[in-house]
Specification:
Layout (H helix, E strand, L loop, with lengths): L13 H15 L9 H10 L6 E6 L3 E2 L2 E2 L3 E11 L4 E4 L14 E6 H5 L2 E2 L21 E2 L2 H5 L6 E11 L2 E9 L6 E7 L10 H15 L6 E7 L3 H9 L1 H4 L4 E4 L9 E4 L7 H13 L3 E4 L8 H4 L8 E6 L20 H20 L2 E4 L30 H4 L6 H19 L1 E5 H8 L3 H13 L3 E4 L8
Parallel strand pairs: 7-8, 11-12, 11-13, 13-16, 14-15
Antiparallel strand pairs: 1-10, 2-3, 4-5, 4-9, 6-9, 10-12, 14-16, 17-18, 17-19
The structure holds zinc ion.
The site of zinc ion has 4 residues, from loops.
Length: 469
């Protein structure tokens, strides 16, 4: 196999990686991103210093199936000012204060006239909500309910949004890492939310760190990394790469990965596609608990990538999944909510899931007539009684209890991996399947298979793995 000596995801030490993730979260958090505009360019430009990728532009007005790339939005300032010149709401304090894609306004109006354009969250009175109006021209302000309660309803206010909407372009980033297997996977995230930590920003940072890690190693499969604005970015990308995207085996949408709470896993629409299985086994082999969510059309860009013409199974690994945490789409999803430490933990799960795809293989036994004699090949412990023999229980993972030193336990697991690999090497079970059936780590089974291949007891068969779902 061509990936025998691949390094695992350990090229950067844990502390350095956490510092890098924390630094990126802090650097990028203040930027006012939207569907289009300089906030996205600035963000992708900064990320590109960490991992190389191409930045592309699609002009406003470009038709993408049923959609059109919108005009580019720029905002310089916005405020609600009392008549004595004091800013009551100030975009400079928090870019969530302005409804994304707000049209310009410069007017004096009563509180009652203004009220229809104010958005708050009464149930979360300290939080500024996140609102956008991309395709319906309007303007508005978002503020905490406490701020609203503090406004004098008998006063008139000067309202100003200094924004422009004019033809420009939609910006996205991409990089294709080429492997040798002929299998290609899609790794996406979205870059369009202003100052929030877990939603959008954490995904952008993880996408970049994962790209940097994969770009530094030899790969068996190809990985297409795409990052752009949510929805219109995915649709525009699909429309411009239709034939390439028809060849994608499956993929991962990276979103909401750095919260303090539970890991989550959202299945692809297939539910048991190789990408789903690789992700579940990653959690299992890392010993991490997680919540599994069914596929749901209310989510991120999987609904476009998985739409009928493309049908790319896309799963998501997250930490505090969107829609599930209280601060979602509010100003409280900030740098106190997310951490570089959490992000790096989720990065490890993505890394392991991809490692599982890389290591997956289907083998055929070259000694299918009974169990081959392992001891004469040095593949069996010479001292009888060192390890417990297989007890034939229905779930071998639960039946593995060994006495003796740690070395003996490891030795016993290696022997188990060797025996199970030989047992299932009928050309019908891939390594992920055997890992699921036996409870043995994917990596251990892979190592056992390598040894068995070296001893001419197994050989990999050429089989498109993505069709095994
Ligand atoms: Zn969002």
């Amino acid at each position: 196999m061509d990936n025998q000596n691949l390094p695992l995801f350990t090229s950067v030490s844990g502390a350095d990686l956490t510092n890098q993730a924390t630094g990126l979260l802090h650097d990028l958090f203040p930027i006012c991103r939207s569907l289009t505009g300089d906030g996205v360019r600035q963000t992708l430009g900064r990320l590109r210093l960490v991992a190389a990728f191409e930045i592309m532009e699609i002009p406003s007005g470009t038709r993408c199936y049923d959609w059109t790339v919108p005009d580019e939005w720029a905002i310089r300032d916005a405020y609600i000012e009392s008549m004595d010149g004091k800013r009551v709401i100030d975009f400079r304090n928090n870019n969530l204060h302005v409804v994304g894609y707000s049209t310009p306004v410069d007017a004096v109006m009563s509180f009652d006239e203004l009220a229809a354009s104010l958005h708050t969250l009464p149930h979360l009175p300290q939080a500024i909500p996140y609102r956008t109006s991309y395709y319906h021209p309007t303007w508005g302000f978002c503020l905490s309910h406490q701020q609203l309660m503090g406004m004098d309803r008998s006063q008139r206010y000067r309202v100003r949004i200094d924004s422009t909407l004019k033809p420009g372009s939609l910006t996205y980033g991409e990089r294709l890492l080429r492997g040798t297997s002929g299998q290609e996977y899609l790794i996406t995230s979205y870059c369009c939310h202003p100052s929030m930590g877990n939603d959008s920003l954490s995904g952008q940072v993880l996408w970049t760190l994962l790209l940097a890690q994969l770009a530094s190693r030899k790969l068996r499969h190809s990985y297409r990394f795409v990052i752009g604005p949510e929805t219109i970015g995915a649709i525009a990308y699909l429309s411009q790469h239709e034939s390439e995207m028809k060849r994608i085996a499956g993929g991962l949408v990276i979103t909401t990965v750095a919260g303090p709470g539970q890991f989550g896993f959202k299945r692809s629409f297939v539910g048991n596609h190789i990408v789903d299985r690789a992700a579940r086994l990653a959690f299992r082999d890392l010993g991490l608990k997680y919540i599994e969510y069914p596929f749901d059309i209310h989510g991120s860009d999987e609904r476009h990538y998985s739409s009928p013409h493309f049908r790319i199974p896309m799963a998501t690994i997250c930490k505090d999944k969107y829609h599930e945490y209280e601060y979602y789409h509010t100003s409280l999803d900030d740098l106190r909510f997310v951490s570089g430490e959490s992000l790096v933990k989720t990065l490890a799960v993505y890394g392991q899931a991809i490692e599982n795809l890389e290591l997956n293989e289907t083998y055929r036994s070259l000694h299918p007539y009974c169990e081959p004699m392992l001891s004469k090949r040095g593949l069996y412990p010479t001292m009888g009684g060192q390890v417990k023999q297989s007890d034939g229980s229905a779930n071998p993972a639960e039946g593995r209890v060994y006495g003796g030193s740690n070395n003996q336990v490891i030795h016993a697991e290696e022997l188990d991996a060797t025996l199970w690999m030989m047992f299932y090497a009928d050309g019908l079970h891939d390594v992920l399947d055997i890992a699921e059936k036996t409870g043995l780590p994917v990596r251990l089974l892979h190592i056992a298979a390598e040894h068995l291949c070296a001893h001419k007891l197994l050989e990999p068969i050429k089989r498109p793995e993505a069709t095994l779902s």
